[in-house]
Design a protein that fits this description.
The protein is mainly α and 228 residues long. It contains twelve helices and no strands. α2 packs across α3.
Length: 228
C-alpha cells in the first residue's frame, strides 16, 4: 500500500505505525485491570471500544474500583476527555472532514493522533499521520484490551497480588508525560491536593471528580488571564 507514497509520506506512515503499535499494546494493562475493578470481560472491551481515551478509561476504573458509582466514574472520565474537544478545533482545518465521516474521525482524536498530525508541514501529511496513528492505536488497543480482560478473569484475587494498586500506577503513567510545563504541574498538584483533602469527607469517587473539576476551572482562569 505504501509503494505509491512519496518518501516523506512513507516516513509519516512508518512513524505512525511505530507510535500506534507501541501505545496500543498498553491496552493489555487496561484489559487486565477491568475485571480487577469489577467489570466483566465484555464491559471492559466495550469501554475501550466506545470511550477510547486511555487516561479517561483508567480514571473510570479508579473511581469504580474504589467504590464510587459508575456515574461518578463517567463524569470524571468526561472531564479528563474534554481536552479532546480542543484537539478537534486545532485539527479541523488540517483534516477538513465533512458529513458523516466527522463522527468517525472524532472518535480517533486522542493525544497521539493529534501530535502526529499537527506537527506536519502539509495537510496531506497531517491526514496521513492522524489516520494511520489513530486507526493503528484503535485496532491494537482494542485487541489487547480483550486479551488482557480474558487474562484478568483468571488471576484470582487482585488485592492478593497488588493488582488493585496498578490502576493508580497506570493512570499516573499516562498522566506524567503531560505534566510538561509549570502550569500543568501546578494544576496537577492542586487537583491532587484537593482530592486528598476531600477523601475523609466525601463518598468514594467524588474526590477524583471534584479534583478534576477544580483543574478544569483553574485551567480556564489561567488561560483567560494570560495572553501568552
Amino acid at each position: 500500500m505504501t509503494a505509491a507514497l512519496s518518501p516523506d509520506e512513507r516516513g509519516v506512515v512508518r512513524d505512525s505505525l511505530g507510535v500506534g503499535i507501541g501505545v496500543g499494546l498498553y491496552g493489555v494493562t487496561f484489559g487486565a485491570l477491568g475485571p480487577a475493578a469489577g467489570l466483566s470481560v465484555w464491559q471492559t472491551s466495550a469501554l475501550s471500544l466506545l470511550a477510547f481515551t486511555g487516561a479517561s478509561q483508567f480514571a473510570f476504573l479508579g473511581v469504580i474500583g474504589s467504590g464510587g458509582s459508575p456515574l461518578a466514574g463517567a463524569i470524571t472520565s468526561v472531564l479528563l476527555g474534554g481536552r479532546n474537544a480542543f484537539y478537534g478545533i486545532s485539527l479541523a482545518h488540517r483534516l477538513r472532514v465533512r458529513g458523516g465521516r466527522r463522527l468517525a474521525t472524532a472518535h480517533l482524536v486522542i493525544d497521539e493522533s493529534t501530535a502526529m498530525a499537527i506537527t506536519r508541514p502539509t495537510d496531506r501529511l497531517a491526514r496521513l499521520g492522524f489516520y494511520w496513528t489513530g486507526l493503528t492505536i484503535f485496532l491494537v488497543w482494542n485487541l489487547t484490551t480483550a486479551a488482557g480482560a480474558v487474562a484478568g478473569t483468571s488471576i484470582g484475587d487482585p488485592e492478593a497480588i497488588g493488582l488493585d494498586g496498578a490502576v493508580v500506577a497506570a493512570f499516573l503513567g499516562l498522566l506524567w508525560p503531560r505534566l510538561d510545563s509549570a502550569g500543568a504541574r501546578l494544576l496537577g498538584v492542586t487537583a491532587a491536593a484537593l482530592a486528598l483533602l476531600l477523601v475523609p469527607f466525601t463518598a468514594p469517587g467524588l474526590p477524583i471528580m471534584l479534583g478534576g473539576l477544580s483543574a478544569v476551572a483553574l485551567a480556564f482562569v489561567w488561560g483567560g488571564g494570560h495572553d501568552d
